[in-house]
């Protein structure tokens, strides 16, 4: 198994000496190639020679011509098979430097994709094929396109990518047989929707047997706004951070990924939806485990809920929100000896006292009328989201009790045991 070269694109706001610092930082974190695009930077915006001393450069012609100095300094020169008007594009590049690419404007069948590659290419040119993904089920088509392009051009030349809100797991699966893996450095900017984070990809490759013929079954976490999640750090690799929109087709996504993944952690806002989709007897689930040709669902959040209730040491507690985390607390409340009072937004009309648990994600604005009268409020988020929620609790008169890490570790231990039983 030869891992794909990890390509990070220089963001449009990073210029001059900052670009060199960015390249060095990415190199230290495991990037293999730095991409410069003509639609993002002008020739005088960067020191091309200084950048080339840090990382091999992939210079990409996007709408505007490539500066000659970029071409001279490049490891590879990316030119489109078609120009911006749909005409046959120039594939001119020095010997051994060409990366021929095609960026489809719509989702294609494999036959349509292969028809785009009838043009004769130099035998040392790399090949990159990119398509938008209207839905996760398109992964099957992209895998077939990749297989046939590899058959034609050779395993050492081809990269096939999907783009879009549900493309991340497809890119993770395709990366096994790609030459290049375009990844995001992190922060608020990414070169294309669906890119994995550089740190997550590097973590995956540590300790992987590169001679393994069969790819390992993947794991992943499904949720919205999960860049902070620690799951990829503590669970066995490969483990993907699959961040999709709240209204994304999560049901179709998990079904299309059944052949490629051993299991998933499920977080907000998909715990209830996937419980229904998998016909679970539970109202909410947070774990999927592959059982042959179907998913089996579990809720290990009950282990986290039990831990939080034990730490609160309360006989009565209010719960803010009525989603998947609350379902777990309801399931263990009697066993923990704690009477729960579940409060929806409309139920809050007076300052809250005693002990409570805040289950709303920090991306959800709490009701304006929410106030506490010296209440102890457990925070079950962790990291930056947990700290933001804690600040909000204090602002409204409460005392936050940070129990997110305790919840997370307790439920994750059980998830790990379940995934080891996947078939």
TrEMBL record:
Q: PANTHER family annotated for this entry?
A: BIFUNCTIONAL 3-DEHYDROQUINATE DEHYDRATASE_SHIKIMATE DEHYDROGENASE, CHLOROPLASTIC (PTHR21089:SF1), SHIKIMATE DEHYDROGENASE (PTHR21089)
- Put simply, this protein is called Shikimate dehydrogenase
Locate the transmembrane regions by residue number. Answer: none
Organism of this sequence: Pyxidicoccus parkwayensis
Organism lineage string:
Bacteria, Pseudomonadati, Myxococcota, Myxococcia, Myxococcales
